Amino acid sequence: MVDPANTPLGRMLLEEITPVVMVLRTPLVEEACLKNGLTLVQMLKPFCVFNNIDVPVRTASDQPYRLQKFGLRLFYELDIRQPNLEVAKERLKQVINQAADKDLSELCSDLPQIDNALSISESEVLPSWFQFFNKELVHSVSFSDHEAFDHPVACLVVVSSKDDQPINRFVDLFNTKKLPSLLTNGAMDPKILKHYLLVHDKQDGPLEKATKILTEMRSTFGSDCQLLCINSSQDGVVEHQDYPWVLYKFEDLPSQPLRCFLNVEDFNEIKDLMQDLSTKHIIPYMEQKIRLLNQQVAATRKGFRNQIKNLWWRKGKDDVVDSPSGPTYTFNSIESQIRVLGDYAFMLRDYELALSNYRLISTDYKLDKAWKRYAGVQEMMGLAYFMSDQSRKDAEYCMENAFTTYLKVAPSSQQNATRCGLWWVEMLKARHQYKEAATVYFRVCTEEPLYSAVMLEQASYCYLLSRPPMLHKYGFHLVLSGDRYKKSDQVKHAIRTYRGAMSVYTGTTWSHIKDHVHFHIGQWYALLGLYDLAANHVMEVLACGHQSKKTQELFLRDFLQIVQKTGKTFEVSELQLPEINISSLRVIFEDHRTYASSAAASVKERIWVSLEEEMIPNLSTARTNWLELQSKLIPKKYKESNVCVAGEAVRVDIELKNPLQIPLPLSSVSLLCELSAVSDEMKSDASSSLVEIQDGESTSLIHRDVNFESSLFSLSDVDFSLAGGEKIVVQLTVTPRVEGILQIVGVKWKLSGSVVGFHKFDTNPMKKISRNRIQKAKHPHCDNLKFVVVKSVPKLEGVIHPLPKRAYTGDLRHLVLELKNKSEFAVKNLKMKISHPRFLNLGKRESLNLEFPACLEKKSSDQSAEHANLNDVSHALFLFPEDTIIHGETPLLWPLWFRAAVPGNISLYITIYYEMSDISSTMRFRTLRMHYNLQVLPSLDVSFLISPCPSRLQEFLVRMDVVNKTSSESFQIHQLSSVGNQWEISLLQPLIRGKSSTSEDEKSSHPRLQGTHLRLGTQGNNGPCFDIASSPLADFHLSERLYQEVLNKGDTNPVDFILISRPLKNDINPEVSEPPRLFSHHACHCSTATTSPISWLVDGPRTLYHNFSASFCEINLSMTICNTSHHVDYKSIPVESVSPFIWSGSSSTRVHLDPMSRTEIPLQVCVFSPGTYDLSSYVLHWNLLLSNDQENRDRSSSGTCQGYPYYLTVLQSD
Amino acid sequence: MATTACFIIVSRNDIPIYEAEVGSAAKREDAAQLHQFILHAALDIVQDLAWTTSAMYLKAIDRFNDLVVSVYVTAGHILHIFRSNICTLLNPLYLPGSRIASSHFDTKVRALARKYL
C-alpha cells in the first residue's frame, strides 16, 4: 500500500484542505503588484506551498511531531464566499469547450483500436482536463458554513507605503463592512489572527519612509507587522530562469510574457515572509487553538457524565427543530467548536484527534437531524480514515453515508454530493477498485447533462482500467456519456466518446448498437461540417434490414442529405444498398459457342456438349488449333482465360437485393471494366500493367471507364427502382471493340441519383487462377472475369418462327428457321442437330413456301424423290446442302416441321454448327445454340384394340378408341391410315370400325411408307387424303416408330396406324382466322398377336330349310384351322355335344399343322327340330411341338380355346 | 402491469444468435437499441460470474435504472440473457455461432413470454 499522502487523493487533500488566509489590501498595493502583471494573491501564491517546512507541532497530546509539508490558501476577502453557481457552471463549460477545441484533428483520424486503449497506461487514457474539471467542481462548493476548513484562519492586512496615513488604513481595512459573511453572520469567530504587512514599491522611493511607518505600526499593532519590498529591479525587465508562476495556471493570467520588476531579492523576501507567517504565526496559533478547544471539549463532552447530559439535553431539543437545513450553530456553540477542532487537527495532520472529534460531533448532528453538517462530518471522517490509512471499510462506509446523506437533503447539496463522490472515487481508485469507482461516478451523475457526461466518461475509463478490463461496460458508458455531451451541445466530445465506443463494438453483430453508434457519429460529423467522415459512418447503417421502416427512411434520408452537402458525387466502395449477391454472378459470353437467346445461355453446358458431340470435329483440338493461331498475339498466361469476340457483348447477370422495406431508386447500373488493347499489352510488361489496373484506385477506375467508353468498349446501363425487399437480376453487358484483354472488375450504380456505389468482384489474381483451374475441369462455363478478346468473326443469329409455346399433342406445324449473319464474311458447312427429332424436323428447301396443309395432300404423281433422306431421321443430324452459305444481309430461311409428339413440358435444344469461310479467322467454326421450352397439352388419346375376326381368317377387327382429353377443343377425325403394304384397312360398317386384312405375301425390305387410307368423318370420301408417305409425316412416323419400338417389343406382325385429325373451327371467336392446323397421331407396333397360336373358322350354311317331318337334319360344316405361329404345332379338336343338337361324325379330331399352314376339317351336325342353334359348344385344344432350341419360353406350350358362336337357323320347309 | 422484456440468446464470443422483444408495454422507438446496449454491457458481469458460480440461473446480476438483467447460462457457455423472470429451458445443441432462425422457436418464445408477463 502506498502512503496515502502520495496518492492522487492524498495530494489533493494536502493541497485543498489547508488553512485559508484572508487578504485585505489597499488599491495602491494592488497597483504596485500589477506592474508585474500579477495581483497580490497571485504574486504570493507560489510561496505558499512548503514541501520541507520541518515545523515541530504539538497538538492535544503531549507528543510533538514534525510537519514537513504545509501550505496556505490565500483569498481576497471578496472571494471568501460561496461561489456563484452560474459563474461556476460557465467556467466548467469553458473548460470543456477548451478541451474540445484542442483535439479536433484527432477526431478526423482513424478509429481507435481497443487493443491500443488496453495497452496504454492510465495517465494516457484519461484526458488531462478531467483533473482540472474535477478540481473546479470541488471548488464550486468552497466556503460553506457547515464545514470549517475553508474558514479563514488568519487575516493578512496589506497597506502600501504610498498610502496616506497607513496606520489608519490598516484599521479601516479591517473595519469595513466588506468582510465575508462567514465572519459577520456568526458562523465563525470574527476574532481571527491578524498579520499586518506594509508593501513598499522600491520604484516609488527610498526605503526610509517605509521603515518609519513600520516602526509606527509596531508600536500600534504589536509584533505582527512586517515590511515587504518589491519591484527592486531598477533597470526594468528581469528574465527569470525558474519563473515560479509558470507552474500556476491562472485562468485570468495574461498570456504574454510578464514584465517583471521582481528580482531574486524580492523572491527571497516574499518566501521568507510567507514561511515566517506559517511557522511563526499560523501554525502556533492553530496549535494553541486546538489545545484550547480540546480542553473545552474535554470539559463539556468527555466523560460519562457529560455524555449522558448531552444525550438527555439533545433528546429534549428534538421537537423544536424543524428548519430544513437543521439547526444553526454559532461559532461559540460547542458543536461548531468541535468541528473547528477536528478541521484544525486535520489540517495539522493529527488525523487521530480529528477522527475522534468528528465521531463525537457526527452523533450530535445526527441526533439534531442537521443532515448537511452530518454529511460533511462523515465526509471528513472518511478522508481522515483514508489519510491515516485505517480501516478501508470504515472509510468507504463514511463516504457512502456522506454521499447519500447529501443527496437526501438535495437539491441544495447536490454540489457537495458531487464533491464527496469525486473524493470517494479517488479513494477507490487509489486502492485500484476501479469497478466500484465506476459505479460511484455513475451515481455522481446529475440532471445537468454536461456534468453527467464527464462523469460517465470517467466511469467508462474506470471500466477500461479495471482488471480484467470490462470492455462492454466501457463501451456502454462511453455511449451514455456521448449522448449527454450531445445534449449539452458538446458535439466534439460526443464524437470523441462515440469513437471510443466504436472500438468496442466493431466486429460485433449487435446490430442495433452498431447502427446507433455509426448513425450518431455520422450525424455529429455532419454538424461539424465534416461531411466526408459523416457519410462514411452513416453509410455503415444503410443496410439495416432489422430496423423499422421509419428508421430505414431516416437513415437513408440523412445519408443522402449528408452526401448532398459534400457537394460532390460521393463514391462508395462496397455500398450496402442494394446488396450484391455475388454467388448469383453469372457471366455469359460467347466464344465459339454462341447462343440464340438468354434462355439458351442458361442451359447447362453438358447438355450442349452431349448434343454437339458428333457434330463438332473435336472440341479440344479445335480449341488448341485456334489458340495456337492466337498464341502469337496472346501471352501464354491468358490461355486459361475465357475468349470473347470483339464486337460481341459479354453479359453478366447479377442479383441485386434491396434489404430495406423502402424503395431504392437505382440508376446507371453498369459494369466496371478494364480493357487493355493488345498493342499496349505487348509494349509494356504484361503482368505489371495488369496488376496496376487491378489495384488501382477506385476513382481512377471510373475515370478510365469514361475515357475508354468511346473507344475500347461500350457498356450497357440500366435504371430501375427496387421495391422494399425486392430481388432483381440485372443483365449488364460489356461489348469490347478491340482485341486485347478484357477484365470485368465489378459493378457500379448510382443510388438516388447522388451516390455512386461500386462493388468489385473478387479479383484476387492468385485465388482466381487456382479456382479457375478447378472449375475448368468441372464445368468449362466458369465465371472467370478475364477475357481474351479476339478479332471479330462471323456470328449467326437464328430464330425459329413461329414456334408455339403451347401445343396440343399431335399438332403438326410448318415453321421457318431464319439464320442471319451480320458479318461480311460468309459461313458454310452448316449442320444442325435437334435434341428431340420427334418434335422437330428439318424440311426441304422447296417446301419453304408451300401452302400448309395442302402440301401434305396426296398427289398421284411420283413419290420417289421425297424419300431421299428418310434414314437420316434416326440420329437427328441434319446436313444443310453444301452450297448453303449465309452472308451479308440476306437471311437464310429454311422450313422446319414441328409436331407435338407427347404431352408434357418439353425442352427443345437445337444446335447449328457452321464454319467460317474466312480461313484466316481465329475461330474455324462456331455453334449456334437455340433453346425453346414448350408445353404440350394432351389432345386426343388414341388407342387401338386388335382382335382376330371370328368370321374371317387372317382378318382382324380393329377397334379405335378416341378420347378427347381437352376441355375446350373439338377435333374432327379426318383420316386413318395403316402404314405399309402388309396391311390394308377398310371400314367394317359405315361406322368408325375398321377391318384390316393381311397380305403376307409381300415383304418390303425398304420401309417405304405406303399404305391404305381410310377417310373418316363427315365429308366421307370426298375430302383430300393426306400423304403419309411423304416428308414430314413419314419422317415423324419413323421417329415415332423408333421411339415406340422400345416399348413394344417382340410382336411378330405389328401394324402402324396414323390418325389425322383437324381442329373444328373455333365457334367462340370465328373472326380469328387461324391457320389451318393438322393433328397426327401415330400408333406404332400395334400388336395383332393373340394368346393362342391358332385361328380357325367354321364355315357352312347359316340358314336352311328342312322338312323335319321326313327326317332330322344333317348339316355339313367345315372348320379351317390356321397355324399363325412360326412353330410346329400339334392340335387336337375334341367336339362335345351338350345341346339339342348333336355333333355327328367324329367327336374328336387330331390334326398336325405345320407352321404357317392351314388345314380343313369336315364337321357335321344333326338338328332335330327347327330353330336357331348356337354351334359354339366345341373346344379346341392345342399343343405346341417345341423344337429343340426352345426359345419361346414366355409362350405357353399348350392351351384350350372355346368355340366361336356360330348361329345356324333351320326352318321347317313346306 | 405493463412490462417489457428483451430476450437474447448469446453464443460464445458475444454473438447474439436470437433476439426477441416481448412484453405488453408500448414500444419505445429506441427500445431495441437500449436493450441491446444494456444486455451487451451486462456481458462483462456475466463473464465474471459465470466462472465463479455453479448456478445456471443468475438472477438480477446487473441493472440499469429500472431495467434488470437476469441470465441463464447453459453448460456450453451460451448465455440466455433476458430481463424479467422468464424461465425458459432450451436445448443448447446447435451449430456454434449460427443464428437461430426457426419461426417455430420464435413463436414458442413469444407464447411463453405472454404466459409469464
Automatic annotation (TrEMBL), chain A:
Residues 1101-1177 form the TPPC8 C-terminal Ig-like domain. Residues 605-758 form the TPPC8 first Ig-like domain. It comes from Pyrus ussuriensis x Pyrus communis. InterPro entries: Ig_TPPC8_1st (IPR058541), Ig_TPPC8_C (IPR057651), TPR-like_helical_dom_sf (IPR011990), TRAPP_III_complex_Trs85 (IPR024420). Residues 995-1014 are annotated as: Disordered. This is Trafficking protein particle complex subunit 8-like. One of its GO terms (cellular component) is TRAPPIII protein complex.
TrEMBL record, chain B:
It comes from the Eukaryota. One of its GO terms (cellular component) is cytoplasm. Pfam families: Sedlin_N. InterPro entries: Longin-like_dom_sf, Sedlin. One of its GO terms (biological process) is endoplasmic reticulum to Golgi vesicle-mediated transport. CDD domains: TRAPPC2_sedlin. This is Trafficking protein particle complex subunit 2-like. The lineage of its organism: Eukaryota, Viridiplantae, Streptophyta, Embryophyta, Tracheophyta.
